[in-house]
Amino acid sequence: MQRRDRDSGILQSLGKPLTKRVKESRVLLVGAGGIGCEVLKNLVCCGFGTLPQAQHGLNGATAETQSGHTAVMPRQPGIVVIDLDTIDLSNLNRQFLFRKQHIKKPKAFVAKETASQFNPSVNIEAHHASVFDRQYNVEFFEGFDLVFNALDNLAARRHVNKMCLAADVPLIESGTTGFNGQVQAIKKGVTECYDCNPKPVQKSFPICTIRSTPSQPIHCIVWARSYLFPELFGTSEEDSTDVGVTEADSAEEVAKLKVEAEALKNVRRMMGKSEFAQEVFDKVFHDDIERLRSMSEMWQSRKPPQSLRYDALKAEIDADIIKHGQALATRDQTTWSLHDNLAVLCYSLDVLSSRAQTGEPVIEFDKDDKDTLDFVASAANLRSHVFGIPLHSEWEIKQMAGNIIPAIATSNALTASLCVMEAFKIMRSQAQAQNGLSKPNANNNHPTTTQSSMIGKPEPTLGGAKMVFLNSRSTERMVTTQGLVPPRPDCPVCSPVYAKLAVSANTNATLQDLVLLLQQRVGYDEFSITTDAGVIYDPDLEDNLPKQLTEYASAAQGNSFVTVTDESDLPKVDLVLSMMVQSTTDGADSLQVIPEQISLPLKPQKAPEVDGDLDGDADPEPVLLPNAGAKRKRDAEEEVEGAKKRAKAGKAEVLEVDDDGVITLDDD
């Protein structure tokens, strides 16, 4: 009865064709944190991937075989969730699929368990792993109808963006910053990709990355500044959070949680005693690190941290450790060694302890407060050493230390709901294409609409999907939209042509064979080949030609790519190959480019530079940039309309040039 009521509501909202498409879909969700939990809940409640495989028929993914033929691969409709993180106490105030008894458990597994209770019919597959792992290759992404990004870092977002471009799968990118949020639909050759526009330097960082898997110096700085320092000298996270115990909570798990929460409090109570520095050091750099090391699944694809012991390091310092630290603290532009950082930490703990016991019970971090900066710099460097991250001088750390923008549960929920709304639009366009109700517009120069073959009406791209924004500054309309923008012609990520390079596992093919294959099949003359390790071939670099291709393929297969760049006078766009090492079948070539027919258009010519000091005898011509931003487009439209009016009046027209020397006009 409950399922019938659920289905009837969905049918009334979406209609039968779209509901069927939603139920038989297979979608990938990368990230099960703040936005990811909300997206998964919405997907489950809306019935994504609930159609049993027996009813799914032949609507499976298609893939090229080694012989170049297309094969239908049966697949199970459902939702696949990938997340590397484990649940932390600080997640519970905004990631509502998790409870206190779930702390330290993998997010993906718990999210699957909890979300399945909303809709037992859904098929959820959880992966506690990194999306960078080798098994998540192009073929893996090709098995999905749609991919959702709910990630917390720039590198992973860019990686998933490129994988979806290579697999030609639609991607819904999302993110929040405080009260603001954004949702963007991305499709190869149709819309701009995540990397079409440069991204600002990330200034906010997720707590889960800071606490468990730091990979950059800023992660360690934020950990020392916003977690360890407040716990010892400021307002404890436990003191500022009202946590209640419910009847559903396990008494044993609650007891363990209280013991863990009291650990740093007990260390804080030892402030003023001679062993205070040692207790702090061994707690955060030995005991906590050993607990992280015990989670073996977290370190399957990355180097585990190495714990430190206070006694072992102090024994190697032949001086009074506090006086030594005081002298080192004045050398803020020198990168301290491991032992130097220990000395500065002990010195800063001694000074801050005295301040806390003499009328300053709550101390707040200030980059201009030398005592607090000494503590954060030395603690961050020690943590960097533990995780194999390069150390920095106190001066550099002061420059990097910034404010954390808090995660807002409401922003996550709104953004996640907008993600699923955009997914409905994309699914609708897929359903129409599957049933032959729509086809690409004949005008392929500006692929922003499709043409319905039955009713002859222009149909919006991707079913009418748009870029959606949450804007907390607007008092009139919090949710605003913008039409999808076509891809930037010179984008280094989405402008290339993506293909596959199949390499037999037992082949003796060399780099020379690949060069010959590219010359024969693609028609290259002068070109270069680049991998993640750098350039391996160009017309002036032939040392690697005798090397076997499996040497490069084993390192590049999976989620890495090989880029072929045309070096001729009229260069074609880049060819990006995902390399696959696979077993040889009878009659199959040991080295193949898939598909067999590859067409590479010429690279767009760079727009000519416009001199701001124009010669009076020459008429300036506007440069058309199809990827201009919305504001600049509106400005340009106003300029064009004004130019037309004045032209009709017989007046000469001179267009004003932007500061960057480029005139931008809408290309509609």
UniProtKB/TrEMBL annotation:
Residue numbers annotated as active site: 208
Identification of the protein by name: Ubiquitin-activating enzyme E1-like
Location of the Ubiquitin-activating enzyme SCCH domain: 342-398
Superkingdom of origin: Eukaryota
Occurrences of domain Ubiquitin/SUMO-activating enzyme ubiquitin-like (ranges): 508-578
Bias type Polar residues, positions: 436-454
Entry's Gene Ontology molecular function annotations: ATP binding; metal ion binding; SUMO activating enzyme activity
Biased composition (Acidic residues): 610-620
Keywords: ATP-binding, Metal-binding, Nucleotide-binding, Ubl conjugation pathway, Zinc
Family according to the record: Belongs to the ubiquitin-activating E1 family.
Residues annotated for ATP binding in this entry: 31-36, 83, 91-94, 107, 152-157
GO cellular component, one term: SUMO activating enzyme complex
Matches recorded under InterPro entries: ThiF/MoeB/HesA, ThiF_NAD_FAD-bd, UAE_UbL_dom, Ub-E1_IAD_1, Ub_act_enz_dom_a_sf, Uba2, UBA_E1_SCCH, Ubiquitin-activating_enz
GO BP annotations listed: protein sumoylation
Boundaries of every THIF-type NAD/FAD binding fold domain copy: 11-444
This protein's pathway: Protein modification; protein sumoylation
Assembly behavior: Heterodimer.
PROSITE patterns: UBIQUITIN_ACTIVAT_2
Region of interest called Disordered, as start-end residue ranges on this chain: 436-457, 602-651
Pfam families tied to this protein: ThiF (PF00899), UAE_UbL (PF14732), UBA_E1_SCCH (PF10585)
Residues reported in the UniProt entry to bind Zn(2+): 193, 196, 491, 494
